[in-house]
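Q: Hi! First time doing this. I have a protein sequence and I read that you can turn it into a structure. Is that right? Here it is:
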Amino acid sequence: MQAIQTNIKGVDLTLQTQPGLFSPRQVDVGTLSMLSCVDFTTEDKVLDLGCGYGVVGILAARLIGQEKVFLLDADAAAIECAKANAQANGLPELSVTHSDGFSQFQEAGFTRILCNPPYHTDFAVARQFILKGFNRMVIGGSMWFVTKRDKWYRNKMGAVFGGVSVQEINSYYVISAEKRRESYAGKV
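A: Yes, that's right. Below is the predicted 3D structure, encoded as C-alpha cells:
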C-alpha cells in the first residue's frame, strides 16, 4: 500500500493506493488538470466514471456532499481502495460501485460526469463511456475527459454533444461538452 497526502481545491485528502492501480505514487497530473477546470456546486449530481482509487469522487463528495456523488470502476482492487479512501476521508456512505462501464449501474440524472479514461488502449471503452454517459445526464449537464490524445475525443464528443471545449493544461487535453438535447447531435 502507498499513502498519498494531497490538497486539491483547498481540501486535504488522504488516499491509499497500491501497485497495479493507475498512478499509485501521486495523484495523476492529468486528473489534477481536469479538476482545475471543473467547479462543483451543491446542485450537482456527480459521477466519477472509472474512479480508480477515488480522487475525483472523494473530492467532489467533500465539496458538495456524499449523497450527490457516485464512483464507478471495473477494477475490483480500485473499488476496494476507493471504498477505504471514502471511509478515511469521512465519507462512509459514499456510493462506490463495481461495474464494467454502466452494465451494473442504474443511476442517472447526472449534472457532471468526469473521467480520466484508459487512453493507451483502443477507444472502445471511451466510446461506451461517452455514449452511455450522455444518456445518464440531464440537459445542461457536462461531461469531462482528460487525455493526451485530443483528436478522437474532440470528434466523438462533438458528434454526440454537438460541440466541445478543449483546454490544454500541463500537456494534457481537458475536453468538456454540455448536453443540450435528449438525442445525439449527429452520427455516432
